[in-house]
Fold this sequence. Notes:
The chain has 339 residues and is an alpha/beta fold. Helices cover 41% and strands 16% of the residues.
Amino acid sequence: MKILVTGGTGYIGSHTVVELQSQGFEVVIVDNLSNSQAWIVDAIADISGKKPVFEQFDLADQKLTSEFFKRHNDLQGVIHFAAYKAVGESVEKPLMYYRNNLVSLMNILEAMTENQIENLVFSSSCTVYGQPDELPVSEKAPIKLAESPYGNTKQISEEILKDTIKSAKINAIALRYFNPIGAHQTAKIGELPLGVPNNLVPFITQTAIGLRQQLSVFGDDYNTPDGTAIRDYIHVVDLAEAHVVAVKRMIEKQMKNAFEVFNLGTGNGYSVLDVIKSFEKVSGEKLNYKIVDRRAGDVEKVWANPEWSHKELGWKAKRNLDEMTASAWKWEQYYRNKN
Ligand code: UD1
């Protein structure tokens, strides 16, 4: 049972490779290392005892992608993580985002069709819902006009999948992630943002370890109990486990439709201050933060209705917020001590 994991040295990808290996899958990673590093392959091997095959190239290159799939035409499925994901950067460099995120998906779908590889799991995002009219948000909620080119690439990618499955012999599952945080319990892999982090938890742990002076909390005048914005944070290992379930569902031909969509969230909403409190509790550190203006493009509150995933996938997020922040902190300390 051989699975291709694109973006397999990245944050969610690396955790998913470990879970696939622990379930007996053979894994091939393709990554261009644009936002990750080659040593992560060794860290994965360190955890699982199995070194995944690793090929470094850019999936936006059609020729290289086609050649790769010809060499690996015995794949049972593909989990496609490789994409750019920074909302702000996508506003600055929209064409870079459209080219990278959409062209690579199209190259993969073409090469899968040519080599009769049928199963694709796609990394989507709760960003497709924008600020939903109803909370918790279910998969049936309308797709809102994207706030950023990044968000638009996720929406367009889902459209590309929907259209492709009509004519090609391809099945696709789009997993809409809420806010993945945390790290592997061994602290050997975790989130590794290049430069100044955009996301909340890496900014918290980098501030606590002394790399950043102060965390800015973006807005305390939202219509929420403590005024700060609410998200559905989910442990990256829970997320990784869901990918293994999705791949098995495809291989075992359990899908109800050739294109399926699932929310991956816990169903719990936590505010920015809740996350800070959890971090301070588990780490024993006092975090230096201040309230500043809202960040452009942020939604006020969003959390998942995960019922459909529970029912259809038989998957449920198990790890709570304290386990998420504690594992993120353990990873930050391990990584900085090592380097
Ligand atoms: C965003 C995207 C999501 C994308 C993810 C990856 C939306 C709605 N969500 O998540 O699709 O996959 O980025 O990059 O577009 N915060 C602070 N201070 C900080 C950083 C964040 O207060 O320094 C706050 C934010 O305002 C927000 C919360 O923390 O309320 C979470 O922010 P972040 O971790 O950046 O994730 P999202 O913006 O929710």
